[in-house]
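step: validate -> pass
step: tokenize input -> pass
step: predict -> running
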Amino acid sequence: MPTRASRSDVLRLRLVSHGLSGPAGEAGGPDGPLAVVERMLAVQAQDLPAASWALGVRSPGTVAADVLSALDAGSIVRSYPMRGTLHLVAATDVRWMLDLTATRVLASMATRQRQLGLDDTIIAAAAEAATGLLSGGRRLSRTPFLAGLRSAGINPDGQRGYHLIAALALAGLVVWGPNQDGQPALALLGEWAPAQRRLDRSEGLAEFLVRYLDGHGPATLRDFAAWTQLTVADTRVALAEAGDRLEELEVDGETLLLPAATERGTLGSRPAQRTPVLALPGFDEYLLGYRDRSYVVDDADFPRVVPGLNGIFLPLIVADGRVIGTWRKETTRTRAAGPIVAVEAAPFGTLTARRTTGFARAIRDYSAFTGLPTTITPPTAPSARAGTIS
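step: predict -> pass
step: emit ->
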């Protein structure tokens, strides 16, 4: 029998699964990024600085350099395991995830590839060229890699370059791994991350669901389907194969799933964040990890999170598990002090003094993560003089 719970219980439990509640869920420092990614399974990462902060905010003590070190060490990588979107994943998880998702993602890209004049022959030629360019441990950032394709007689202009790289990554040939000259670089997956877990299909589907819930639960099966873009049939197989590793909550007549090992705490207690106010990055899993986002943001406020509903998710201000505003940052370079980050908050309503102080603390944590001095305009006094956080 499912356990009856409230929407507030869902928020409280999600904060725990996301590593945003209680003591630090993972050790900070060099081990923090991999620990977070392994628990979350995947973290959306088309914006690498934002994805890096998504790891840092879940692993206090981790700094941006630790994320780059994990990428350079090959413990985490970026690939396209879901929805044709870049995600950070543990290097050992790439292959089995692609085995389950790549076929549908490639099918969804087929029309656009035809419009761009990309067919199987051209993609096969690109794969051969990529193997030649990257074999022997070579690594190339985007510009020299595309130049190499051009030298091999393959036109990478416009969106063709993106689609060629994505197709090669979805085929399990290449992966975004280390940095080279300050830019993300491509490497051959088989060379850069040779130690790959291999799971049969039913085992992999169960692993997908359980690991998703480890880092996102409680959530519905529809949330899982939206996150992975697996078929309904596959999600049902995943649920059946997961078996007694999962338990159910009933919330407003809807069934939500969570790992059986989850410590539920006291049902009915308030959501508790690690800090009173969180400054989450854009494209954060706390919002993007679900089909139903009404648990964390009111429908009326959602257009403020995605202005113009253009698919660009702004950084979030979160209190009591709910989105209460957004924030923006702009980095400028000064001759005397070097880069300085200017932060401006856009709360949905007037913030209390406690939440204003909490937001300033959250931005101090962000400043410590980046290592850059940060100025913030107090959100309750937008015309006030900005203060500097170092």
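step: describe -> Confidence is low (pLDDT under 50) at residues 380-390.
step: cleanup -> pass
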